[in-house]
Amino acid sequence: MKINGTPYRSVWVNEKDGWSVHIFDQTRLPFALDVLQLTTPEQVAHAIKTMQVRGAPLIGAVAAYGLALALRTDSSDNALEQQAAMLAATRPTAINLRWAIERMLTHLRPLTPAERVAAAYAEAGRICDEDAAQNEAIGQHGLELLRTLAAQRGKNDKINILTHCNAGWIATVDWGTALAPIYMAHDEGLNVHVWVDETRPRNQGAALTAWELGSHGVPHTVIADNAGGHLMQHGLVDIVIVGTDRVTRNADVANKIGTYLKALAARDNGVPFWVALPSTTIDWQVADGVREIPIEERSGTEITHISGRDDNGQISRVQITPDGSTAANPAFDVTPARLVTGLITEKGCCAATPEGLLSLFPEQG
Question: How far apart are the two ends of the chain, measured CA to CA in Å?
Answer without folding.
Answer: 36
